């Protein structure tokens, strides 16, 4: 049985199953990327809720695993060489899980890098832009009298949706017939934009029928439906 006691994060979130991959997360668009991937892959894992309400992400135990104090993070007791591996950043975790299992990423080198390209597109564009739009539309930023910041993120979000709409036209998924980590990275953010952020009308979502089609197929997947609620909020 692996001994994870050397990792301070396990003192705050004890591992009931130390032989399983430990997930420290919250069901946000970035957080559910990993829970969805784990469900799709069928890997045994133990989820731990990192509550923002109690600032768990700034606790010394969490910072010992992720000094950037963001979710998600993982601790894999069966990492490379059979040694435990601690990892943060959702994109890095998705790549790690894909490489670990040989799934959710094409084996062909060119297609692999094309998948990573779309993963990076989400990390560098979709996540930051949609997140800022959410702040200025739904949260504290909505009270700002100057609407220029909001409008900037609305315009960029529309542009990104247009890029995505063109990409999936005639394709089942981002990479064609193959469902990959690029889909797992992108579609939770699209879902959040029109759902939790309530920005459907603001971004003119009805103008992107191909995005709507693939989003519907994504949320209909059983592993996605389960992963979207993990870790369960207390």
What is the topological layout?
Blueprint: H1 9-12, E1 21-25, H2 29-41, E2 45-49, H3 60-65, E3 73-76, E4 85-88, H4 90-101, H5 109-137, H6 148-168, H7 181-194, H8 209-219, H9 222-227
Parallel strand pairs: 1-2
Antiparallel strand pairs: 1-3, 3-4
Helix pairs in contact: 2-4, 2-7, 5-6, 5-7, 6-8, 7-8
Strand content: 5-15%
Q: Describe the biggest sheet?
A: 4 strands, mixed
Count of DSSP H/I helices: 9
Helix content: 40-55%
Gap from first CA to last CA: 29 Å
Shape: globular
Poorly predicted ranges: none
- Order of SSEs, N→C? HEHEHEEHHHHHH
Q: Strand order, main sheet: write it out.
A: 2-1-3-4
Class by alpha and beta content: alpha+beta
Oligomer: single chain
Q: State Rg.
A: 18 Å
Task: Report the average pLDDT across residues.
Answer: 96
> What is the total tally of β strands?
4
List keywords for this structure.
single chain; four-stranded mixed beta sheet; 50% helix; alpha+beta; globular; 234 residues
